[in-house]
Design goal:
The protein has helices at residues 14-28, 104-108, 153-158, 256-261; strands at 35-38, 41-47, 58-62, 68-72, 79-82, 88-92, 97-100, 128-132, 136-139, 162-173, 176-188, 192-200, 208-213, 220-225, 231-234, 240-245, 248-252, 280-284, 288-292, 309-320, 323-335. The chain is mainly beta.
Length: 342
């Protein structure tokens, strides 16, 4: 699917984005999602605001077992990415994404294996190849890895959030040289849980029962629909995701969102290969269904882990017949006091 919602992560590098999305769930319940350098804290790569010349890009830093940069380039210009030696290994846009398969960097950034599994000096002759039909891509840039960040014991002993380094990825947009950059932060371990909560059901009021499903690191929603017109929930890229009607509940197998949440034994995700038509498959004969909802998840750090509070606001666009509305909710953090101090 080539459409991309400006407020959401890009689709490019879908296989690797799905790995990242699945990995983050297991980390969310502990209030931190970076690589652990010490038993009592973690180091995170944090994305700084983009410089003015890159402000038209959509860039996200997704935190999983390895930091992943996701970039969508709607500018109509080519965005090139340099490796640690200054050699180009990615071209995102204007129409598609190309990777130089001759560079070690391309292969090293598309795997969760240890960095040493593919030597940094393994590059050969350039072999530029289209790797994605849209100007979107996601990669595990080694410059964002936290494993080798020097963490002074004074920082750990202080038990407070602290700056411990910087990272930078040189890029060129059109003819303008710039960089996507950020910092490394140490964050003491926070113990607690996150729970999603539905706040507003929009046009579904009086037509459906919607509840968040608590008790899991993977927030889920349950929806029971009694309306007359078919109800369609849209996915993260504004693609048709789930459809509720008198005939039951169907999932769009071309939906990348369905690809992230499809339970075992259900109809699996099928790459649309540019086909924007929905491919519906029944997942329930009734008019009720529960699913893991990635938009309600929170895998980022918590600013003050000692206090309860809202850490994320989320929404799910819906269509009832030809009318549009949305389900809105929040995700909240609730600290749990360590057993040893109780």
């Amino acid at each position: 699917m080539s459409r991309c919602n400006p407020s959401l992560p890009p689709r490019g590098g879908l296989f690797f984005a799905l790995i990242a999305a699945n990995l983050l769930w297991a980390l969310a319940a502990h209030g931190h999602g970076g690589s652990s350098n010490e038993d009592n804290g973690s180091v995170y790569a944090v994305l700084d605001p983009l410089p003015a010349e890159l402000s038209s890009l959509r860039v996200q830093l997704r935190k999983t077992l390895a930091p992943q940069l996701l970039v969508s380039n709607p500018t109509g210009k080519s965005l090139t990415i340099e490796d640690e030696t200054g050699r180009l290994f990615l071209r995102i846009g204007p129409e598609n994404t190309e990777g130089d398969l001759g560079t070690a960097a391309f292969h090293r950034t598309n795997t969760l294996m240890a960095p040493g599994a593919i030597p940094a000096n393994a590059s050969g002759d350039p072999r530029w190849t289209v790797v994605e039909a849209t100007p979107n891509w996601g990669w595990f840039d080694l410059r964002l890895r936290t494993d080798a960040v020097d963490l002074p014991h004074q920082v750990v002993d202080a038990g407070e959030r602290a700056f411990v380094g910087q990272w930078s990825v040189p890029v060129t947009l059109g003819d303008t040289e710039s960089a996507i950059s950020g910092r490394f932060e140490y964050v003491p371990t926070a113990v607690g849980i996150v729970e999603a909560r539905v706040e507003d059901v929009g046009a579904l009021k009086g037509q459906a029962l919607i509840r968040a499903m608590p008790g899991s690191a993977r927030p889920g929603l349950f929806l029971s629909y009694r309306g007359d017109s078919p109800l369609t929930l849209m996915g993260e890229q504004d693609e048709p995701f789930l459809r509720f009607s008198a005939q039951g509940v169907e999932a769009n197998r071309h939906s990348p969102t369905w690809g992230m949440v499809a339970p075992a034994g259900s109809p699996s995700f099928v790459d649309s290969k540019g086909d924007t038509e929905a491919r519906w498959a029944k997942v329930s004969n009734g008019r009720s269904y529960g699913w893991i909802e990635p938009r309600a998840a929170h895998a980022d750090t918590v600013e003050d882990p000692t206090r309860s509070g809202v850490v994320k606001r989320w929404s799910i666009p819906i269509r009832i017949g030809d009318n549009r509305s949305r389900i809105e909710g929040v995700t909240e953090w609730f600290p749990v006091e360590p057993i040893a101090s109780m």
